[in-house]
Amino acid sequence: MKVKNKMLAKNGDVCISILHEPGEDKFGYEKPEERWLPIHTVETIMISVISMLADPNGDSPANVDAAKEWREDPCGEFKRKVARCVRKSQEMAFD
């Protein structure tokens, strides 16, 4: 299944701070307390995934190409590509 989202890398990796290794961010985008901590649960991770999909942070995208498309034309071609991905995944679900 293919998903078009600026917060999902082309290989499917999810760009969520709490899943990143603990410690300092070598790129300087995240504070240590925003990264993985042992207090996180499946629930906190799922809430982060839902938040990422509902309101993606365009400042640090995992899929730079999708982020660029979204910034340049959010209601045009990007939206059509997302709709195509949704239709394809719905078709796959019922095959």
What does this structure look like?
This protein has 95 residues and is mainly alpha-helical. The protein has one domain (17-93). It is built from three helices and no strands. The protein is globular, with a radius of gyration of 15 Å. The chain starts with 41 loop residues before the first helix and ends with a helix. Pfam families: UQ_con. This is Ubiquitin-conjugating enzyme E2G 1b (UBC7 homolog, yeast).
Annotation keywords:
mainly alpha; single chain; 95 residues; 3 helices
Describe the structure in brief.
InterPro entries: Ub_conjugating_enzyme, UBC, UBQ-conjugating_enzyme/RWD. With 95 residues, this protein is an all-alpha fold. The chain has 3 helices and no strands.
List the helices and strands and how they pair.
Elements: H1 42-54, H2 64-72, H3 77-93
Protein name: Ubiquitin-conjugating enzyme E2G 1b (UBC7 homolog, yeast)
Domain UBC core: 1-91
InterPro entries: Ub_conjugating_enzyme (IPR050113), UBC (IPR000608), UBQ-conjugating_enzyme/RWD (IPR016135)
